[in-house]
């Protein structure tokens, strides 16, 4: 048994550290749209948990949905299930205040990823957030995507951002420079409307790929100390301790037996961290773009891709591939919005179709290339996700799944978005074009200051 565990240990470390994530066959993968699909399934899985529950989330709101998950985790812990929660210290501040005390009292193990300290402490480390959204139960089922533990109709944070953006506009010379007040005016109208649910996705996984999800969550748990200190560099002693802990996990798994095949879908977990897998998710996108033959459809909430990504998109267009981008149609963060609009010029000139989602806030981070590759996850295509944050995406190599996701995105494009007209965008007032250029160049400068300037 010890020899078998030793061999399994070395194999698992090779899997954890190899440059390309393993593709697992024999999975069942279900596409989930919004919390309306995700939350009932996840809560049911937690209620039926026998051994262990793992959750990683960026936001844990104090609304009705956050309360439902808090109750479910407490009940699971009280009946003897091992429950672990990793909550980001910046995005999860509301959960830290409202839920964590109760969770700890019920016996839930909680670790806060880099708790917020002084607001005056401005370092690149502070930008390295835990942006993953994963729920896993008993090594049997996992939910991975872009959906936080917050009600789909809870727009308090976005409404606050809109009000602050309007206030900044009124108290500055931004509107004089930009000469383009329409987006913020549209948001004023939006505040008086009934907003629809966030547009977002997740996947439910069953089968061998769940093992990769589980080990990824164990790995992150070991990197986050009890006080939220995060290990990004590793000593020989650290490796020895983690190998010992992983050996214990594998011994427990050996008693439970291997994860059985649940279907015929090939899937892989693709993560980004600040250790060895800094470029995995972006590389996955670029490789898919290089193999594209007919169509690419991406939906992304915050779109400021690197030079490599932009070149891959334009190279696909040069081969005659139809590229459609569904992007944020609401000005949640004014600076980033104007920086993104600067990129529209190059994309539109090369025939990329750009659409902006309008009924509510776009939060999706998904994509489909032809009918052979699809991804759903937490990673935006912007500097914060691709250079700093810990992210998790699932790539699905299955025609039926890709066609389902593509049909959903094309429906949203046709019925819930407006297309950016290349000629109208080119003829924007010079102040507007100049302001977008300034925002983009300041973004480049910020990235350069953090030592990643060559990427953007």
Task: Explain the overall architecture.
It is a single chain. With 456 residues, this protein is an alpha+beta fold. The chain contains 17 helices and 15 strands. Strands 4-3-2-5-6-7-1-8-14-13-12-9-10-11-15 form a 15-stranded mixed β-sheet, with helices on both faces. A hairpin with a 3-residue loop joins strand 12 (365-369) and strand 13 (373-377). Helix 13 crosses helix 17 (430-449). The model is unreliable at 171-186 (pLDDT under 50).
N-to-C terminal Cα separation, in Å? 50 Å
Structural class: alpha+beta
Radius of gyration: 22 Å
- Proportion of strand residues: 15-25%
| Widest sheet, order of strands | 4-3-2-5-6-7-1-8-14-13-12-9-10-11-15
Fraction of helical residues: 40-55%
Morphology call: globular
What value does the average pLDDT take? Answer: 86
Q: What is the helix tally?
A: 17
Which regions have little confidence, pLDDT < 50, spanning 5+ residues?
A: 171-186
- How many β-strand runs? 15
Main β-sheet description: 15 strands, mixed
Descriptive key words:
single chain; alpha+beta; 15-stranded mixed sheet
Write a compact overview of the structure shown:
With 456 residues, the chain is an alpha+beta fold. 46% of the residues lie in helices and 20% in strands. The protein has a 15-stranded mixed β-sheet with strand order 4-3-2-5-6-7-1-8-14-13-12-9-10-11-15, sandwiched between helices.
